[in-house]
Design a protein that fits this description.
The protein is built from 11 helices and 8 strands. With about 325 residues, it is α/β, with parallel strands linked by helices. It has 2 domains: about 130 residues, no CATH class; about 180 residues, no CATH class. It has a 4-stranded parallel β-sheet, with helices on both faces. A two-stranded antiparallel sheet has the order 3-8.
């Protein structure tokens, strides 16, 4: 009985009702505080950017289990609490494939997800120079960029097909009220054919094979996957699923780090950072990620508001 209760409590963490109840218990203790509601670990990206624009006495964040629960918390607060003087609330969600209606008071990423803000040439340059401490005129810096561009192009061609597959599945689930398939069961490395900087190659995989790999049994015509492939472009990663974007970045940075350390692939052997990019990359590299104008506008608009102190009315 006790184990069942613990299990139930564990599963409820991050759900909208549980987060809302925690918020209700805490908000009265604080003044001039910003309450931030985010998906999972995304606060590591949002917090420093909020701090750049507003200066509350404190920021308290609540990790919600996905987009639907951030929206759920917002709706509960709007429905069950009254507003009166001097704390601020902000809500942040990933856009994903834009199938869900999101209240205008909630910030939505311009790209598929937060992770997409980490994979771009400017971010890579920033990491090479300021995190891995490479001179921008050095051979290693130029060699690193060359390998990034080459492997990124190969990954992008593959990613068009994979993301059209993801999109088709999510659209089918949404239209038919089906539970979401778990895309997280396969990592980026599963799809690598040749795992080296100088001879990088992604696997050639059919839609039929992808259905089997993800254990999906939906009856979807192959033509639907092919038609949806036209929605994606290898030169525009805006709609690519964020998890693989981040995993590719981690892969390329680790390959570069190791190659320089060992003096392989025409790199000048040198001491480089010892950081394993597969560990907490979103947190460690947050400073270097892209920040869209829309995010600063949302923070400025909401941070400047003297949002009234919330008064608990009813949680029944």
């Amino acid at each position: 009985m006790k184990n069942d209760l613990i299990d139930a409590m564990s599963k409820s963490i991050g759900k909208d009702v549980a987060v809302f109840q925690k918020f209700v218990l805490e908000y009265k203790k604080y003044n001039n505080t910003l309450f931030s509601f985010v998906e999972g670990e995304d606060f590591c990206y949002y917090n420093p950017r909020i701090r750049q624009r507003v200066n509350p006495e404190d920021i308290i964040y609540y990790k919600c289990d996905g987009k639907s629960n951030v929206i759920g918390v917002y709706n509960l607060i709007k429905k069950k609490l009254q507003i009166r003087n001097n704390n601020t609330m902000m809500f942040f969600v990933d856009r994903d494939y834009n199938f869900d209606k999101v209240p205008k008071e909630i910030y939505i990423t311009d790209y598929y997800a937060i992770e997409n803000f980490y994979l771009n040439e400017n971010t890579v340059k920033n990491i090479l120079e300021n995190f891995m401490e490479m001179n921008t005129h050095s051979k290693n810096y130029k060699q690193s960029l060359n390998f990034y561009k080459k492997t990124y192009a190969e990954y992008s061609i593959f990613a068009v097909k994979l993301n059209s597959f993801y999109y088709t599945i999510r659209k089918h689930e949404k239209l038919n009220g089906l539970p979401r398939a778990n895309f997280g069961i396969l990592k980026f490395s599963k799809f690598i054919e040749k795992d080296s900087l100088d001879n990088f190659l992604m696997k050639q995989i059919s839609y039929e094979r992808l259905l089997k790999m993800y254990t999906i049994s939906y009856d979807i015509p192959i033509q639907s996957f092919q038609e949806n492939e036209l929605l994606f472009n290898e030169t525009d990663h805006t709609n690519f699923r964020g998890k693989f974007e981040l995993e590719f970045l981690q892969w390329i940075l680790n390959k570069i780090r190791i190659s320089i350390k060992e003096g392989n692939l025409d790199f000048d052997k040198d001491k480089v950072c010892k950081y394993d990019f597969h560990t907490d990359a979103m947190k460690v590299l947050s400073t270097y990620a892209h920040t869209p104008k829309s995010l600063y506008e949302y923070i400025d608009q909401n941070g400047c508001k003297n949002i009234e102190k919330i008064i608990y009315t009813d949680v029944s």
